[in-house]
């Protein structure tokens, strides 16, 4: 199978931003006559050449439907797909690759868990599902739907003005003894807050709740060790970690996933079907009905290998330097308010008094700096702060101190033009 993967470069011993940038062909362009500064990485990351080549190589050389195929291409595609599952399992430190279910992304993973929990009857009237004030809509709405179906109540851990979660309120809610599930994000996509995931998971587990971690943001910034975390489910999207869109992962504890019912029915998730009765497949196939995103899974493994070569800890340290520098460089701008605590990861959100975030973002784009504006799919969080949105700059491994300078310069210019 060696020839299936494009050539890998030797292991990198240190963080070399310049050579990393050249791995990302899309970054080599100008926008409105200025070098593109891409700071919308929390929305989606750009893809390195190794990922692009892996996808192309798949379609050029061994595209076929997986499992059950007897021919050469089907065997090659199946081998690469299952190898990708092992790569993900290794990255997450999962006990087994059977615990890795390929999905379309974070949203799909959360909806899967929400549906199987509703079907299982484990959550019912009088129970509580607990989320946090920092959640993305995709970690709120599926739980509201579960509550509507089961009669459970949705509870929310509030946050402080600095964008950290109110741990005392969290413990008080747990002490009520009704929480059956805690679903929360490891890093806030809106404010960059890093939550104390291990401590919160431990507390919820001691209170008898299941725990789902939304790792959409942390997957590319922090090491992920599902065994050390002690949660029951963890979800992420490939496109936030330099892989294509349309692929993601649900990791779940094998004993729990074995016990829970299947959700979507179809090919692949069955052992035997008759018109009278169907028996279901083993993990992970039980939760993978239909033809999956084969190329996406293989490309995700290439992205993970790429991140692993550099080292996620090194990436994190590099990004933390940039984000701290960005916070410092933006602070002197008159009327600016930065959201989130010091020590944020990935995202830096701000507003400038009297100016609309959308107008700021539009002007910044005209000067070559790509940021995101709006509610970041966190409307309840925006409401908590009495705002409709923010400007959000979010960082990845290929960003540089020059990008930070450009961000500060362009933000100040845009603000001055709007005044
Ligand atoms: N959760 C968080 C924290 C996110 O940042 C995102 C995307 O921005 C999602 C969930 C949803 O991810 P996707 O749209 O890839 O399913």
Shape: globular
CATH H-tier superfamily of the largest domain = Type I PLP-dependent aspartate aminotransferase-like (Major domain)
Q: What separation lies between the terminal Cα atoms?
A: 61 Å
Oligomer: single chain
Query: What is the helical fraction, as a range of percent?
Result: 25-40%
Helix run count: 14
Molecular structure report:
The chain has helices at residues 17-21, 49-62, 72-92, 106-120, 141-150, 167-175, 197-206, 226-229, 254-259, 294-310, 312-330, 357-366, 379-384, 401-418; strands spanning 30-31, 34-35, 37-38, 100-103, 128-132, 153-157, 179-185, 210-214, 233-237, 248-252, 270-273, 278-280, 336-339, 347-352, 369-370, 372-374, 390-394. The chain is built from 14 helices and 17 strands. Helix 4 runs parallel beside helix 5 (141-150). With 419 residues, the protein is an alpha/beta fold. Residues 1-14 have low confidence and may be disordered. The strands form five sheets. A seven-stranded mixed beta sheet has the order 4-10-9-8-7-5-6, sandwiched between helices. It has a four-stranded antiparallel beta sheet with strand order 13-14-17-16, with helices on one face. Strands 1-2 form a two-stranded antiparallel sheet. It has two domains: 17-42 and 311-416, Aspartate Aminotransferase, domain 1 (Alpha-Beta Complex); 56-308, Aspartate Aminotransferase, domain 2, CATH 3.40.640. The longest helix is centred in the first third of the chain and has 21 residues, at 72-92. The chain is globular and about 70 Å long. Helices cover 39% and strands 16% of the residues.
């Amino acid at each position: 199978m060696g020839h299936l993967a494009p050539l890998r470069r030797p292991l990198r011993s240190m963080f070399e931003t310049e050579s990393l940038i050249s791995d990302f062909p899309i970054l080599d362009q100008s926008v409105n006559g200025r070098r593109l500064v891409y700071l919308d990485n929390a929305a989606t990351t750009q893809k390195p050449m190794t990922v692009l080549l892996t996808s192309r190589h798949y379609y050029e050389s061994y595209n076929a439907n997986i499992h059950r195929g007897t021919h050469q291409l089907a065997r090659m595609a199946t081998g690469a797909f299952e190898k990708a599952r092992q790569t993900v399992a290794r990255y997450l430190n999962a006990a087994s690759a059977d615990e890795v279910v390929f999905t379309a992304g974070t949203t799909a993973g959360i909806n899967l868990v929400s549906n199987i929990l509703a079907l299982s009857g484990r959550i019912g009237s009088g129970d509580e599902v607990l989320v946090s004030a920092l959640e993305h809509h995709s970690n709120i709405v599926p739980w509201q739907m579960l509550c509507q179906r089961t009669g459970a109540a949705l509870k929310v851990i509030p946050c402080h003005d600095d964008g950290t979660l109110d741990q005392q309120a969290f413990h008080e809610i747990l002490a009520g003894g009704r929480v059956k599930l805690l679903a929360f994000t490891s890093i806030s996509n809106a404010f960059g807050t890093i939550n104390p995931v291990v401590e919160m998971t431990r507390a919820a587990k001691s209170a008898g709740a299941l725990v789902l971690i939304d790792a959409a943001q942390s997957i590319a910034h922090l090491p992920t060790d599902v065994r050390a975390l002690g949660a029951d489910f963890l979800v992420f999207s490939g496109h936030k970690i330099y892989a294509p869109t349309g692929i993601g992962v649900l990791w779940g504890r094998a004993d729990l996933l074995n016990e829970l019912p299947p959700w979507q029915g179809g090919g692949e998730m069955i052992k035997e079907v008759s018109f009278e009765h169907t028996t279901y497949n083993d993990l992970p196939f039980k939760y993978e009905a239909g033809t999956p995103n084969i190329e996406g899974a293989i490309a995700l493994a290439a992205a993970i290998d790429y991140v692993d070569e550099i080292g996620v800890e090194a990436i994190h340290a590099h990004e933390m330097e940039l984000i701290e520098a960005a916070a410092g460089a933006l602070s002197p701008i008159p009327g600016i308010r930065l959201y989130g605590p010091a020590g944020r990861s990935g995202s830096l959100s701000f507003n400038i008094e009297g100016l609309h975030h959308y107008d700021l973002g539009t002007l910044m784009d005209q000067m070559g700096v790509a940021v995101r504006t709006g509610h970041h799919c966190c409307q309840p969080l925006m409401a908590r702060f009495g705002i409709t949105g923010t400007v959000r700059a979010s960082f990845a491994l290929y960003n540089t101190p020059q990008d930070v300078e450009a961000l500060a310069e362009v933000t100040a210019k845009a603000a001055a033009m709007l005044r």
